[in-house]
Amino acid sequence: MGVYNRAPLAFERGEGSRLYSTDGEEFLDCVGGIATTGLGHAHPALVKTLKEQGEKLWHVSNIFRIPQQEALADRLCAASFADVVFFTNSGTEAIECALKAARRYHVVNGQPDRVDIIGFDGSFHGRSYAAVNASGNASYLEGFGPRLPGYTQLPFGDWEALKAALSPTTAAVIIEPVQGEGGARALTEAQLNELRAMTREAGVLLIYDEVQCGMGRTGKLFAYEWASDAEPDIMCVAKALGGGFPIGACLASAEAARGMTVGVHGSTFGGNPLAMAVGVTAFDTINSEETLGNVRDVAGYFVQQLNGLKDRYPDLIVDVRGKGLLIGVKLVSNNREFMALARDQKLLVAGGGDNCIRLLPALNLTQEEASEAVAKLEKTLDVVRASQKAA
Known about the structure:
This protein is of the alpha/beta class. 38% of the residues lie in helices and 18% in strands. The strands form 3 sheets. The chain has a 7-stranded mixed beta sheet with strand order 4-10-9-8-7-5-6, with helices on both faces. Strands 1-2-3-13 form a 4-stranded mixed beta sheet.
């Protein structure tokens, strides 16, 4: 189906932060499958695990115990607020689980009228019907019939509006601690703490969508960890959780998951042995000081250099934003046109809301590769400036 506006490129192999096209061109990858190949392409440990597990067992039904699933769940719970995990194949499916769990919680808690889900503008929670309604992006809702009831959006970070919107029918608040598609907008640590306090006081569940900003992307395993008292009730992760292999997970406290009893939810492929084996290896590699420390160090250098570009090109760059290696650069010129010009310099960047480009490189990107990316961006900016002068 013609639902993708694809770039005129095809890749046949990758290694680390490099992608190689079918016509032999080498590109520096700062898209990472949209923050998904978190350890780069063809990471040796992931390839080894995939081969070993592929020769043993790919799939069994969730009517049986799956040891690799239990191992990954144990790791996720030990490293977070969570007590239980439901595994899926994608971030969207994890969001669906979270929304269902939130409403079920209030039903079994004797408050079935608590069904409303409050989200925020600029959010992106996936492409399923509930997920697009939770996001509220008009372009993703158009043509699919009436909107689902019980979903509303507020201005991102506007806690006064949230305070006014919380009511006896509110089930949950869903938010990305760092927005991805919305333009790399990050909540401050104070905002995260305040949000947690407000929802707790109102008896409302707090859902974090860390599909893009989680799994080491900000320099901590999860973005909420930067705040002192901001643990959610439910959290969704995916993307880098499998290092490029399709895995998603919905994490929850035992209390928040009390409505998720036998028969109310399920998945055919979610948590299959092949995915879980890769997930365990990816998790162990990401959840290390070597990886997380590298994210903090390289991100600090990257942002410093990008701000230097902003100073040298104030007519072309408006802002540098984000957290860790989820970096947004707000442009004056059209971001989609800029992405194409960057490809001419053999640099791959992602788009984003608010006329941003996003830099979402591998978590093990080196400082030398970050410097190379900055140099390619500078050449792209020179092209844009020259074209403007010529016009």
